[in-house]
Amino acid sequence: MTARKYVWEDILKTVKKLDPEKLEIVKATLPVVLEHGEAITTRFYERLFENHPELKNVFNLTHQKTGHQPKALANAVYAAAANIEDMSAIMPALERIGQKHRSLQIKPEQYPIVGENLLGAIKEILGEAATPEIIDAWADAYTIIADVFIKMEGILYKTTESAPGGWGGFKDFVIDKKVRESDVITSFYLKPKDGNELPLFIPGQYITIKVDIEQEEFTHLRQYSLSDRPGLDYFRISVKREDALEEGYPKGVVSTDLHELFNEGDTIPITAPAGDFYLDMESRAPVILISGGVGQTPMLSMLNTIIHEQPDRKVYYIHAAMNSTVHAFKEDVKKVSSEHENVKAFTFYQTPTDEDKVSHNFDEEGYITLPALQKILPSNEGNFYFCGPEPFMKAINKALKQWDVPAENIHYEFFGSFGNLDSD
């Protein structure tokens, strides 16, 4: 299976250029927008939901409460405006957003609504400093940026729906099997209710599920990585129950309901697989899969795909968990590594239980560090893929760069718009 390649530069050639005078205004006001970015986007969401409450069916309201979404949008607006003369430099980030928009079923007619409320928020936050000339310049800049997304997502919609087994919108799937993988992770095996074939996907991609929760006014959409290989008669997602209030984060209403209320035979609407983070199946270079917690879900898809389609390709599977009670798929990975000489698996426990220490069922205590990687791996050559909590990914990214791993060999899944693992 090969990766999907899109030539987004062709879209950029068709995009209208910003008037030179307005371009200078946007450039001159970028520092102010950056300074007030989160305040602007926070107010934007307030305005958006006040004027169009139906859009609460699209946005992750948990991310609104934690401030994650306003921060991500602020980063996206700033990066797009800063590169509006030549957006080819940020096309990977734009595609990441476009893929998520397609998965969430964002439509062209929603862009003017977003633009109107975003400009309104800029006027409110900047006050008299937001002159008519400034608002007019930013309005044109937004129109150009929106045009890029609309054209990009149009291609994604078309290719997704026309693919064998593909579909548009949400399609009903039935929970064929529900399996408890650890104290906090449960897998759901999903089969199409209509019995039709499933489309192929690229290991590493995700689906969006739609959940209506009792006593909740709005629909909830959540994206979960597919945790098994393509080509089977089911999609599998493995969901961590987010029920602990950590660092002010509210519990995950969707993950909790999936664990407690959804059972075999129940129906869940989902969109077709999407995502720009996936395994390069054209390469035969060694693969290093590094995960923390539930971040192993796309890695499992990659691992299972490799042993099925590239049984001689070298794989190092390195996983970090708190301890064995929350370590899902341990026996599955152990079985794969014992049956396939090309697969080497390593486990890190941050706080192993007394039983873990007695049974020696892990390889290292503590975190995955650069010295630990250098101890496991024969060299820094190969394709590195990693996923997990943001602090975990920042640490892995920093370690790989310190080891002089080429940037083109570093790949990660970041569930944010313009994720920057180099920031503090």
From TrEMBL:
Its job: Is involved in NO detoxification in an aerobic process, termed nitric oxide dioxygenase (NOD) reaction that utilizes O(2) and NAD(P)H to convert NO to nitrate, which protects the bacterium from various noxious nitrogen compounds. Therefore, plays a central role in the inducible response to nitrosative stress.
Pfam annotation, one family: NAD_binding_1
Cofactors demanded by this protein: heme b; FAD
Lineage of the species this protein comes from: Bacteria, Bacillati, Bacillota, Bacilli, Bacillales
Binding site for FAD: Y206, R222, Q223, Y224, S225, F414, F415, G416, S417
Keyword annotations: Detoxification, FAD, Flavoprotein, Heme, Iron, Metal-binding, NAD, NADP, Oxidoreductase, Oxygen transport, Transport
Chain segments carrying region Reductase: 165-424
Catalytic activity: 2 nitric oxide + NADH + 2 O2 = 2 nitrate + NAD(+) + H(+); 2 nitric oxide + NADPH + 2 O2 = 2 nitrate + NADP(+) + H(+)
Domain of life: Bacteria
Family of the protein in this entry: In the C-terminal section; belongs to the flavoprotein pyridine nucleotide cytochrome reductase family.
Site feature (Involved in heme-bound ligand stabilization and O-O bond activation) residues: Y45
InterPro entries membership: Cbr1-like_FAD-bd_dom, FAD-bd_FR_type, FNR_nucleotide-bd, Globin, Globin-like_sf, Globin/Proto, Hmp, OxRdtase_FAD/NAD-bd
Record-listed E.C. numbers: 1.14.12.17
Positions of NADP(+) binding: G293, V294, G295, Q296, T297, P298
Domain annotation Globin: ranges: 17-154
Catalytic site positions: Y111, E153
Keyword Disulfide bond: no
Annotated heme b binding sites: H101
HAMAP family reported for this sequence: Hmp
Marked site: Influences the redox potential of the prosthetic heme and FAD groups: K100, E413
Record-given protein name: Flavohemoprotein
Stretches assigned to coiled coil: none
Organism expressing this protein natively: Metabacillus fastidiosus
Bound cofactor: record note: Binds 1 heme b (iron(II)-protoporphyrin IX) group per subunit.
